[in-house]
Amino acid sequence: MPDLWELQQKIVPDLTEKLLRRYHILRTIYHFQPMGRRLLAKRLDCSEREIRGDLEFLGSQGLVQNTSAGARLTPEGEALLQSLEKMARTAEGTRDQETILKRYFGLKEVIIVPGRGDSILQKEELARRVGNYLHASMGEEGVLAVTGGTTLAAVAAAMKKGRRQRPNLTVVPGRGGLGEKMELEANTIAAEIARALGAQYRLLYLPDSSNPRTLAALKKEPAVSEVLDLLGKTETLLHGIGGSMEMARRRRLPSEEIEVISKRGAVGEAFGYYFNSRGEVVYVTPSVGIKLEDLESIDRVIAVAGGIEKAEAIVSSVNPRFQDVLITDSAAATAIIKKIKEEGSIDDSKNRNQWIWSDW
């Protein structure tokens, strides 16, 4: 029998649309407060008249404080926003998308963040959702490894410090440094996430492209060997997925290598491994820290990536042999489902039990 929400969508769909619009208004204000009507209307592609009416209503309910600097959420508004997320996922079809992608990828769990608005808002909301997931799922002890990159940097920046302390949980960088902006490095992200989780952390003072001879010598240093030992005990891994060309540039690869990666059809990258659209590994660059083959021995591997531009990279890089959880957004999910529908039945599961290594 249909539930009340399903009946409401069928009988009064305009009420559903209004509810969703107000949910997205609260969500947008949460990330960018204080926020004026004009910018809010632009980000949500609504008229200023609609936004004005909604803000007046939300203000009358004590959910939004309208000030000369712009709108802010009240504590009641923040609490309601969390409660509305489940409703929004149902109304926008996100739950159905999660079911489809969970079956297609063969994963234990898929979490899709509903979205409406620009890419900046989408990334902020994805980061918030990942942070909430870590707060809810991490235990009191063990080792959590995290990689670097723009998505995980957003997660670290969005995570609020919780009341719970985990002095026996250690957060470590899952790879060496790429020599890029400090906030994008795995070391920085590990420290910020540890602070939010009330955990301790260790840093890895090595460039990601260290050659074997240098690495062998540095492994004798206590500060390095301790972190490498901890990486071998990783129980949870949080990692991002990059576009192949983006990651090749971030790793500062020579133009000849970038050309080879491009000619081999790479579309996604993780841990220095480059994948084509069929999930084949077509190129590997040296990388310090966790390797792709290490993922099988890690209890829980969480892949995070969002945005329509990451859809192809997600399809190429996610495999049930190595990942357990995928957290993404509705923009990427919609693009992925469109792609797999075009290629054949969604029931023709991608469930590959091993990576396909091209003859390169």
Put the structure in a nutshell.
This protein is α/β, with parallel strands linked by helices and 360 residues long.
What does this structure look like?
The protein has two domains: 4-84, Winged helix-like DNA-binding domain superfamily/Winged helix DNA-binding domain (Arc Repressor Mutant, subunit A, Orthogonal Bundle); 94-357, 3-Layer(aba) Sandwich (Rossmann fold). The chain is an alpha/beta fold and 360 residues long. The radius of gyration is 22 Å and the shape is globular. 48% of the residues lie in helices and 17% in strands. Strand 9 and strand 10 form a beta hairpin. The protein has helices at 4-11, 13-32, 37-44, 48-60, 75-91, 94-105, 119-137, 150-158, 186-197, 212-218, 222-231, 244-250, 255-263, 311-317, 330-343; strands spanning 64-67, 70-73, 109-113, 141-146, 168-173, 200-201, 236-240, 242-243, 266-270, 273-276, 280-284, 300-304, 325-329, 356-357. It has a seven-stranded parallel beta sheet. The chain has a five-stranded mixed beta sheet with strand order 8-9-10-11-14, sandwiched between helices. The model is unreliable at 350-360 (pLDDT under 50).
Q: State the low-pLDDT regions, or none.
A: 350-360
Q: How confident is the prediction overall: mean pLDDT? A: 85
Percent of residues in helices: 40-55%
Whole-number tally of structural domains: 2
Chain oligomer state: single chain
Order of helices and strands: HHHHEEHHEHEHEHEHHEEHHEEEEHEHE
- Outline: globular
Structure summary, number of beta strands: 14
**Terminal residue distance:** 55 Å
Which structural class is indicated by helix and strand composition? Answer: alpha/beta
CATH class of the largest domain: Alpha Beta
Number of helices: 15
Report the biggest beta sheet as strand number plus sense, adding barrel if it closes. 7 strands, parallel
Radius of gyration: 22 Å
